[in-house]
Amino acid sequence: MCELGERLRRAREAKGLSLKEAAERLALKASVLEALEACGFEALPEPPLARGYLRRYALLLGLDPEPLLALYPRQAPPPPPRKGPGRRPFPLGLFLFLLLLFGLGYGAYLLLRPRPVQVVEVAPPPPSKPPERYPLRVVSEPPGARVYLDGFYLGQTPLESPPVEGGKRVLRLELPGYEPLEAEVLLKAPLTLTYRLKPLPQPPPASPPVPVEKGKLVLKLEGRSWLRVRQGDKRLYEGIPEVGAELSFDLPVEVRAGNPGAVRVILEGQDLGPMGEPGKPVTKSFP
What we know:
Protein name: Cytoskeleton protein RodZ
Largest sheet: 4 strands, antiparallel
Oligomer: single chain
Keywords: Membrane, Transmembrane, Transmembrane helix
Organism: Thermus aquaticus
Domain HTH cro/C1-type: 8-26
GO molecular function: DNA binding
Structural class: alpha+beta
């Protein structure tokens, strides 16, 4: 097993997850995760989608996806040449004996050979066609929803994607404050899809705000993201919190986020907004 697959497998087993359980959490097929752990890259879809699967799987397992993406090969290496065993000198007497047998056999073949049979050459089958690709346009009401195709992030609505491989694909839309929408679509021609998102139920009235203590950092999770928080050489937290969770830490701390766009930073009561751009891991020190 390659280093990439071994790291994924050890992390999954350390979390007590089976391939089926991990696949259900990521809304992927278990065969995709099995191919990643076995480094069966030929069984995976096009590289952009496969790298998207790898990034989401790493975040689920609490791993930094960047080192793993660096291990993902662009093409399978050729098999190493086989080395045959050393040759020993061929006995001369045995060589002459075999040569005599060959002469006798060839003479008998010339005497007894049948008439040549006419051979009809059959043209080789035509090469298989590459899979068809089609453009995809997605519109939502309200706009600004994040669009995922088979778990790979494409952009925000209104979206006009470049041509993608046809067939049955899973489309997912996510927008804070609205219920996620997931649907199976069949791509066999250029397609335009329009969806109306349902708002989430309104929470009960909030209690009066509690005064914020000085020297505190609060991280609010508005989406899924892997986090690691350190204070000097001490690791305070590492994992993937639930969406909507709030984590509070005493300053000073160093924070690394796998999806900074989903992490809102509140420093000593001041809302600093998202920690960074979506899908681009970043490390920051506070205060």
